[in-house]
Amino acid sequence: MKTTKRKKPERKIRLLALTANGGMFQVTEGKKVDLYFFQPLASDFGKAFAVDKLAPDFDAPPLEKYQTCLNGEDSVCCCKGFLHWGHCRHIEGLTALQEAGKLS
Predict the structure, then answer these.
(1) Distance spanning both ends of the chain, measured CA to CA
(2) How far apart are CA 80 and CA 72, in angstroms?
């Protein structure tokens, strides 16, 4: 019996807002849409961010909080995805926004 691998849905990231104190981006994977707020953090290397996954009810506290540092191949994030797989949507999304010149 032949098993087939499940095809992962395409991941898209979109910058929704950018201010002097951070911004908001959206990650879409298939029908799943998540919103994140990010703020720059001081860092001795790379570009560091505090990233909060927002609840659908914006008045609720963040669902999850992460610290992400963009530093090329040495980028790191404290989320479960990065700790398990060595990559994550937070690094990939913020890196894509940075490479597109959307993060100052």
Answers:
(1) 52
(2) 20
Segment holding 90, helix H or strand E: helix 89-99
- For residues 82 and 86, give the distance between their C-alpha atoms in angstroms, rounded to a whole number: 4
Tens digit of each residue's pLDDT (9 = 90 or more) over 2-60: 777 778 788 899 999 998 889 999 999 889 899 999 999 999 989 999 999 988 877 77
CB environment 38-65: b (16+ within 10 A), e (fewer): beeeeeeeebbbebbbbeeeeeeeeeee
The secondary structure of the chain in percent helix, strand, coil, rounded to multiples of 5, reads: 15, 45, 40
Give the residue-averaged pLDDT of 73-97: 92
Beta bridge partners of 35: 26
Cα radius of gyration (the chain): 15
Does residue 80 sit in helix, strand or coil?
Answer: helix
Q: Which of 43, 60, 59, 62 is nearest to 51 (CA)?
A: 62
Q: How many CB atoms are closer than 10 A to CB 12?
A: 13
